[in-house]
Design brief:
10% helix, four-stranded antiparallel beta sheet, elongated, Rubrerythrin, domain 2, mainly beta
């Protein structure tokens, strides 16, 4: 039986920060992967928010 390896890449959920404060219904979320050995802190990317129709900052949530 093969030994189970610890994987460095994990799936993370990115949620729009501006959408929560705008008061509009719905959420803008993306699923991405990151290497937790290289980036132990929370991920922060600029992604397109289809509800607000512009690029916004999306932060990693737990």
């Amino acid at each position: 039986m093969a030994k189970k390896s610890k994987e460095a890449r994990v799936q993370v959920i990115l949620e729009c920060t501006e959408h929560k404060t705008s008061g509009m219904p719905g959420t803008s979320r993306y699923i991405s992967t990151k290497n937790k050995k290289n980036t132990p802190e929370r991920l922060e990317l600029k992604k397109y928010n289809s509800i607000l129709k512009r690029m916004t900052v999306h932060k990693e949530i737990k």
